[in-house]
Write a structure and sequence with these properties.
By secondary structure, the protein is mainly alpha-helical. Helix content is 68%, strand content 3%. The longest helix is centred in the first third of the chain and has 30 residues.
């Protein structure tokens, strides 16, 4: 063994021997079998011999010398007579090094320990150790694979490196497995599923008493086939299965499973292995169902797999469907849950059909199809489901859902949460945002405590965050989402939170996280994702990207019916459609949304964002009458705190800017209101657009400085639409090129006019873009016009 693989403390001992061979040394090297104790002791012997020191081993204890070094391997295996001799010699020995296996019978090592004795443990190897041992030519990924397969046990690592294939290693281990006997093989079978420290489990598998187990464990430990924590290395577990055969493994596992089920003990490790082996039978099915119930909250995807395996094995799908659907919903497998609900709906049993309606209605609502979901939930007749149906009804504009009396029947835990959600959404429509949010937060906490969020049409955290976003309560929305369990829906809403408040870098990161996830999204989440991509493209002023994202966002919009909870993405689509000249494509959806809000009396909380989006769509599309109408509607909204007044004041300045009237004080006042409402990007955008159109250099500078301040406080990391804080100084050549850009000349034409190459023009334009801090040619031309024309006028 290479000495750089030895523990650092042992290398220090070896260095000490080299520098002063006569120095006192008293060391106990400990480690499980197979961890290189004999090899380490040999390294000590070599260093002593190289220094001229006589080395006494267990076969030479009868000829001690005062200057000898006593090195004893496996001291715990000495005979009684040898132990007596060693204890006598050790009393006066200056140099004594022993190896010791933890847990081995006997106490000789303990009897030889003095205060000066150093204990050095030989650990398992890391992947880096495997690479050093193998030398050059071993790929890093191969080293990692071998380290995992052998659990870092040096003896097994050496075998894996030496053998040409894993099958060869397994064949080499067969002889050692035979020496363990049936009890040893059974122990490895049980320990291989994670039961190595469970005495009761081991006794059951071995068919022995608890008192018989330690002897079997000691024998297997001594074989060097176990890791330090008594777990079974994967290569050994595979060798055991290949050696004893699947039937024998199944016999042991089923016997253990039966005992665990009878005792009401956890069965997960055994059930997992039986599922992997494809076992069947009534006991196995019961174990699979019990394992699913164990992990449904911690690993719902695994629970769904267990239920599916039980169903394949013969368990009743109708009986499993409610719990199976719950696991499927928790793990995001909505298609599976919907199929299970449909199967229940087709059952001959009335109770099963009502359960199916509850499952299918919940899933349909989660996918965004609130109308069909509400219909099924109401048909189920379950009191809690009726509350959820009313919740969906309000989101769809059903005014009757406000007055529908409660059933008066007892409701389960999720029904209490549903009732609070319903009260919160009702309050968001008819009352104050603060009261609505407080009620929804209470529902979120109740759902977390009761673990009933999966039974609702949307997670309480998502509904609370949606209302908070419409109220521009961005900190509250983020806090709720961060505390909630991770998931695609919550991550999407975190992205929307970041985008609306102007932190485009964070918004983009959340967007990519969801986009890179495996599996399809629900139609509603697909809409939120595509509209988020579209909104980010608009805010970073990348028209090409916006056009690309428009196609996917438009398709997602057409798949998702309009409801209160999808107004945010609809707003982004209205603006994008106007920029793309496709406004006619979203006109019907816009009218549906406005009609929905009208049925509710145009509630301030739900109307503000959509009206703001309609306003901007009209501005982008050049429809100033429509923009003024939307602005009048904003001004007429009351009871929305400082948010709506900020939108109305800023909108008035947008129209004034478009009319060529730039009042710096009023622009800054409107932008300041947006900033205080949390809309820092919008504030920076407003001042930037005013600066672009300002003809007075002082006004331009003031507005640019303000835009820079708003931008820096919003967390914007990707926005290039807000110009630099000061109009920069251009060189004479840059000024010449700038004037020609203002006149609309292409780079080739500018080169011909100035008698320079087109590449040189591009080089100068790159410097101009860097100085101005913008990339969009239209914005560059507007800024240059303000700088160069106003400078000439002055």
């Amino acid at each position: 063994m290479k000495e750089d693989l030895l523990p650092s403390r042992l290398r220090e001992v070896l260095a000490g021997i080299d520098s002063d061979p006569e120095a006192a040394v008293r060391v106990v090297l400990s480690g499980p079998s197979g961890h290189g104790k004999t090899t380490a002791l040999s390294a000590v012997a070599e260093h002593y011999r190289a220094a001229g020191v006589t080395v006494l081993c267990r076969d030479r204890l009868d000829s001690p010398g005062a200057s000898s070094a006593i090195l004893i391997d496996d001291a715990d295996t000495l005979s009684a007579a040898e132990q007596d001799v060693l204890v006598g010699l050790a009393a006066g020995a200056r140099r004594l090094v022993l190896t010791h296996t933890p847990g081995a019978p006997g106490s000789l090592a303990a009897a030889l320990i003095t205060p000066a004795t150093r204990h050095i443990r030989l650990p398992s190897w890391s992947a880096e150790d495997v690479s050093r041992f193998a030398g050059r030519g071993l790929a890093p990924e191969k080293a990692v694979a071998i380290q995992k397969a052998a659990a870092g046990i040096p003896r097994l690592v050496a075998r894996c490196l030496r053998a040409p294939s894993a099958d060869e290693v397994i064949d080499e281990l067969r002889g050692e497995l035979d020496q363990l006997g049936e009890s040893g093989l059974t122990y490895l079978t049980v320990a291989g599923i994670g039961g190595g420290r469970d005495i009761e489990l081991l006794a059951t598998g071995l068919g022995e008493t608890r008192d018989d187990v330690p002897a079997v464990v000691d024998r297997v430990r001594g074989s060097g086939l176990l890791a330090a924590d008594d777990t079974v290395p994967p290569v050994v577990a595979r060798a055991v299965r290949a050696h004893v055969g699947v039937d024998r493994v199944l016999t042991v596992l089923v016997r253990i499973l039966e005992v665990l089920l009878a005792a009401g003990e956890p069965v997960l490790p055994v059930a997992r292995e039986l599922r992997r082996l494809g076992a069947g039978g009534a006991i196995v099915r019961a174990g699979l169902e019990a394992a699913a119930a164990e992990v449904v909250l911690d690993d719902p995807a695994a629970a769904a797999d267990f239920y599916a395996a039980a169903a394949r094995g013969g368990s009743s799908r109708t009986r499993l469907a409610p719990a199976w659907a719950r696991a499927a919903v928790l793990s995001g497998q909505l298609d599976t849950a919907l199929r299970l609900g449909d199967e229940l709906l087709g059952s001959a049993e009335s109770e099963a059909r009502h359960r199916g309606a509850l499952v299918a209605g919940t899933v349909m609502a989660r996918r965004g199809y609130l109308a069909r979901g509400a219909e099924l939930l109401r048909w189920s007749g379950e009191p809690g489901a009726l509350l959820l149906a009313d919740l969906a009804g309000i989101a769809l504009g059903d005014v009757a859902a406000f007055d529908r009396p409660a059933s008066g029947a007892p409701v389960p835990a999720y029904g209490h949460v549903a009732g609070r959600l319903l009260d919160g959404i009702r309050e968001s429509v008819t009352g104050r945002a603060g009261t609505a949010l407080a009620t929804l937060l209470a529902a979120t906490d109740a759902a977390e405590v009761t673990g009933t969020g999966h039974l609702l049409p949307d997670s309480p955290a998502a509904l609370t965050a949606t209302v908070a976003l419409h109220a521009a309560e961005f900190d509250l929305a983020q806090g709720v989402l961060v505390r909630a369990a991770a998931g695609g829906r919550h991550t999407l809403l975190l992205g929307w939170t970041a985008m609306l408040r102007g932190d485009l870098g964070a918004a983009g990161a959340h967007c990519r996280t969801v986009a890179e996830q495996d599996g399809p999204l629900s139609p509603r989440d697909e809409l939120f994702l595509r509209a988020l991509e579209l909104g980010l493209a608009r805010r970073v002023d990348t028209p090409d990207a916006a056009r690309v994202h428009w196609v996917g966002a438009y398709e997602a919009m057409m798949r998702q019916p309009v409801d209160l909870f999808s107004l945010l993405p609809l707003g982004e689509l209205l603006i994008a459609a106007a920029r793309a000249g496709e406004g006619f494509r979203v006109e019907a959806r816009r009218e549906q949304a406005i009609s929905l809000l009208d049925r509710h009396g145009r509630p301030a909380l739900w109307s503000a964002w959509l009206t703001w989006s309609v306003f901007h769509a009209a501005v982008v599309g050049g429809d100033l009458p429509a923009a003024r109408k939307a602005l009048d509607e904003l001004a007429g909204i009351s009871g929305a705190g400082r948010f709506v007044p900020a939108l109305a004041a800023a909108g008035a300045q947008w129209l004034a800017i478009l009319d060529g009237v730039i009042d710096v004080d009023l622009v800054l006042a409107g932008a300041g209101l947006l900033h205080r409402a949390g809309l820092s990007w919008d504030a920076a955008r407003l001042t930037g657009q005013a600066a672009i159109r300002a003809t007075d250099r002082t006004a331009m500078t003031t507005l640019l400085r303000a835009g820079k301040r708003f931008s820096s406080t919003s967390g914007v990391t990707a926005d290039r639409t807000v110009p630099a804080a000061e109009p920069p100084t251009l060189t004479p050549r840059e000024s010449d090129i700038g004037r020609l850009v203002i006149d609309g000349h292409t780079y080739r034409e500018i080169g011909e006019i100035l008698h320079i190459s087109g590449k040189t023009v591009e080089h100068h334009m790159a410097r101009i873009r860097a100085k101005l801090g913008v990339n969009d040619r239209r914005t560059i031309a507007a800024l240059l016009s303000g700088m160069l024309v106003s400078g000439e006028d002055g």
